[in-house]
Amino acid sequence: MKFQDNDTKMVVVSFVKNAGKIAFAAKEIDVGEWKGDMLAVGVTEKDMTKDENSKFQNSILKKLDRLLGGLLAEVSSEEDFTGKSGQSTVLRLPGLGSKRVGLIGLGQSASSPSAFRGLGEAVAAAAKTAQANSVAVVLASSEGLSNESKLGIASAIASGAVLGIHEDNRYKSESKKPQLKSLDILGLGTGPDLEKKLKYAEDVSSAIVFGRELVNSPANVLTPAALAEEASKIASSYSDVISANILTAEQCKELKMGSYLGVAAASDNPPYFIHLCYKPLSGPIKAKLALVGKGLTFDSGGYNIKTGPGCSIDVMKIDMGGSAAVLGSAKALGQIKPPGVEVHFIVASCENMISGTGMRPGDILTASNGKTIEVNNTDAEGRLTLADALVYACNQGVEKIVDLATLTGACIVALGPSIAGVFTPSDELAKEVFEASEISGEKFWRMPLEESYWESMKSGVADMVNTGGRPGGAITAALFLKQFVDEKVQWMHIDLAGPVWNEKKRVATGFGVSTLVEWVLKNSS
Q1: Mean pLDDT, rounded, of the chain
Q2: Taking every annotated instance into account, which residue ranges of this chain make up the domain Cytosol aminopeptidase (predicted)?
């Protein structure tokens, strides 16, 4: 299905073309016998301990060093490689089936998913530098690990490798394809359980790459129509479990979505309300969930235009980061096909622009639940679109809703660039999502929903204003959203304004996808 917009796209691209396909395999083979371009060894600082003769005490390092005539110990000393996190050294040496041996530092100890995902990313970076096609990864110390731990570690390494080789070169005139074609994971077991876990890592990682590429796409390419098109493609690709219902502005008007349409009114590019629904192939439904993502494909601020230092108008293509997490999750779940759970993926997509038809400061909008909103700031537009999206989600008969939005700068001020803020009245839902985040390795922090702050959101002429004062801005934004959620529904708001974007590299992170997928699977089992 084609969706119309009035923007002339200067660049035509497709998504996840350069995700890079790596063939993963789990093997039990002696490190000295493995043949390929590079053998990468993940080492902790403890693994690098040497005896009085400057010889390794770790059995794997000792074996490799013996096969290389002591050169491994010698080079690690000369380069002051101690196994600290972020350290790596790669040697091209004769004497092994592998052309190169790399040591990748894991720090004092490694136990978290993020540490092993970091190992996978470091291996991908080393492989890129060495132009290696075939790589093996082994941990210097894997004794005493449970089977469950081994599965989790292998999955995290594989995920890190996929994300590590990804470079979004779609908008560059010249680009190199990733060299890495195969990755063998040694010493963590073999068998169908591990193969299934590696397949899962691939599915989720490719969905994260998809989310990154959506956020990286500029607003002249990723219009609301283009976002709706991408959502429809997900439904077409996994039509056995996912269906799509894309609503036009006229259909949204019939549903009385005045809050959402108020934001969309200024743009020449029409809005599209995206609703995907996942239903398992068979069996009973034990849980009905909704994932709601903010989908502003560009945010100028409206008449309260973004101006001055730090306004970040140049990166406001990222204001659909919540929708990227939601659609990325849909893509992953379409591949994984979990039983027992129905999931609704909802995005009220539009642009916040300036024109004679646009909403003005002081306008009063009526949301689809009948509540009225005095617009005292047109740049607090995301919550206006989410208001109608949350009402719509509740009307699908779901029991739990998680919404994700690049909602406030206040949340970045509070938690910095790498932690998302979590707001929910439900301790049970908080527990579920935080348990999912422990597996994904993404960082979240629960924030208070301080009801007394609602005083600052009261209007003299409507039910509420759309923004309070500067103090506690992330909290009052969450309290605003709460007005549009049925009290019987467990609800969580995630403000991911910080972690959705890597400011240093100037690229998207794909934040949220991994945690959402884990959360859905927890509700499936």
Answers
A1: 94
A2: 377-384
d(C-alpha 523, C-alpha 525), whole Å: 6
Output b/e per residue, 154-179; b: 16+ Cβ within 10 A.
Answer: bbbbbbbbbbbbbebebeeeeeeebb
Report CA Rg, the chain. Answer: 25
Query: Residue 425 in contact with residue 436, Cβ under 8 Å?
Result: no
How far is Cα 238 from Cα 228, in angstroms, rounded to an integer? 16
Structural domains for the chain: 23-169+176-190 (3.40.220.10), 208-524 (3.40.630.10)
Task: Fill in the amino acid letter for 135.
Answer: V
Whether the model clears a pTM of 0.90, i.e. scores above it, the answer is yes
Mean pLDDT of 52-61: 92
What pLDDT was estimated at residue 8?
Answer: 46
What residues are annotated to the active site?
A: 306, 383
Helix (H) or strand (E) holding 7: none
Q: How far apart are CA 59 and CA 47, in angstroms?
A: 9
Long-range contacts for 483-489 (Cβ within 8 Å, ≥24 apart)? 483/371, 483/387, 484/367, 484/369, 484/371, 484/386, 484/387, 484/388, 484/390, 484/391, 485/390, 485/394, 485/401, 486/394, 489/394, 489/398, 489/399, 489/400, 489/401
